[in-house]
Amino acid sequence: MDGKVLIYSPFSKAMLTRIAARFELIDAQGKPPREAFSADELGDVRAIITAGGEPLGRAVMESLPKLGAIVCYGTGYDGIDRAAAAQRNIVIGHSPAANSAAVADLSMTLLLAAVRRLLTADAYIRSGGWAAGQPSLRLAPPRGMTGRRIGVYGMGEIGSKIAARAAAFETEVGYYSRSQHDVPYPYHASLEALVEWCDVLMIAVRAGSDTRHVIDAAMLRRLGQGGIVINISRGSVIDQAALLTALQDHTIAGAGLDVFEVEPLAPGALSALSNVVLTPHLGGHTAESHIAMQDCVIENLSAFFAGRPLRYPVG
Amino acid sequence: MDGKVLIYSPFSKAMLTRIAARFELIDAQGKPPREAFSADELGDVRAIITAGGEPLGRAVMESLPKLGAIVCYGTGYDGIDRAAAAQRNIVIGHSPAANSAAVADLSMTLLLAAVRRLLTADAYIRSGGWAAGQPSLRLAPPRGMTGRRIGVYGMGEIGSKIAARAAAFETEVGYYSRSQHDVPYPYHASLEALVEWCDVLMIAVRAGSDTRHVIDAAMLRRLGQGGIVINISRGSVIDQAALLTALQDHTIAGAGLDVFEVEPLAPGALSALSNVVLTPHLGGHTAESHIAMQDCVIENLSAFFAGRPLRYPVG
């Protein structure tokens, strides 16, 4: 055992068992470390494992005097106060590509379900509507995938996998990203230009203060009546109140959302809509991507405790 | 107006309006023609438009003495008594590729929803389960798409489009078809060999007496515990009672079904299951594929009434 590791966010037993076989763990089970443990117990913690979206600020870092590494489970690290970590010489790692296929797969699942109105269709059978020959307005023939313009916002590991999948459905794919990438899809010079062009907006941008609420009421009007927005990134990218209004008054046609401004999402106006498909932040939640993300955590911690640079540092 | 056309199956108003602009129609609205119309009214009917899966036998043909063409809406023509038609020199047409993209898209929608347990996930949010932090066994991390072996049964227009879509999800694709095709996927010499190899079976075979119940209890055991079966072809290809048992006792993991032995499907044992995703035979049901199928009907009828061979004859 090389040194003590604090489990900051709640994680599955399967993961903790696997990590505990290699490192000494103490598990705060989602509670603030100072509530869960004494200063003494926290005194020799050298690394943290956290879900990257969960707020982890200066106060937590200060409660762990020997903290040298923050290892995020998954791609995101938007919850970490990077300036505070840099000041204390704390390195930050993540699992950059481990869950990208699973997340891209889920974004296509949400898109196809929204386009083909899968939830309505399934419920129509289970409720007996089909057997009774009941008319269903929501099952009038929708516009399908063929020829749709798919705008991918963000062209990192996940965005490029979304683009590859979407292109296989006889669509046109375009993208906007801070910089142009070597990919076979047209680049749009701004998010506005991309949204003006596309009728499906796939959000795959890294979340941060610069992307907060960039998808607002004006952007949704730009997406337009046939438009569908899919978000597997972070809830903060979308102004959720504006999205709710746009869905209610049919400014856009539909949405597929894996992430929300406040998680877990409570039932309410959003979940009352039939033109949305909702999943509880499970983009990276497949057996194989959990294993791959755990591999990244283990490689990051092993490197750190051996005094080497992290294997997957935050760029 | 070139001649009278009988509408045999129920079709949408939008379609009938479009066809009626070019041809003289009488609409049986799904009733047997002899019930709906007098012998006199049927006497000068020269063509029929029908949904290809709907039984259309010798008796109907005999009630239409001038019938020369049966035009199927969609790809399938398994409901037509082809021998009877041939004896009376009635030609048969269909819309071979018009809806294949839409059908392939739906098969991927069903597969992704089954793999990622979309219905359970959405219901978990809407019911308040996520907000309450309720555990959900059905939401334990599933095996995702990456590396899955996708077996495509049938390599026609639809099968090849399914294969192209599935391959974009970082899977392995293989197929079985009566004959080998010039496609970049390994060919398996028999359906048994394909099912033994794959863990997802995508049924895209043309239905007929030779394919009735080929997916039976033994074949489902061969597919195995992690297996998922998707059917967008015809309900007759699967022994539905055997499938129900295999889903209930977890001989296979799940299914996505757009077609059933008896349609419409009434709520019952199948729709009580959480490991199936069900849609009411809407594979080809998108705005653009309806237009394309109508185009095929119009081209077939125009050719027929001009005394030329059908534009899209049944092969």
From TrEMBL, chains A, B:
Name of the featured protein: Lactate dehydrogenase-like 2-hydroxyacid dehydrogenase
Keywords (A to Z) from UniProt: NAD, Oxidoreductase
Signal peptide range in chain numbering: none
Origin species: Rhodopseudomonas rhenobacensis
One Gene Ontology term, aspect cellular component: cytosol
GO molecular function, one term: NAD binding
Record domain D-isomer specific 2-hydroxyacid dehydrogenase catalytic: where: 5-314
Family per similarity comment: Belongs to the D-isomer specific 2-hydroxyacid dehydrogenase family.
InterPro entries from the UniProt entry: D-isomer_2-hydroxyacid_DH (IPR050223), D-isomer_2_OHA_DH_cat_dom (IPR006139), D-isomer_DH_NAD-bd (IPR006140), NAD(P)-bd_dom_sf (IPR036291)
CDD domains: HPPR (cd12156)
Pfam families xrefs: 2-Hacid_dh, 2-Hacid_dh_C
Domain annotation D-isomer specific 2-hydroxyacid dehydrogenase NAD-binding: ranges: 108-283
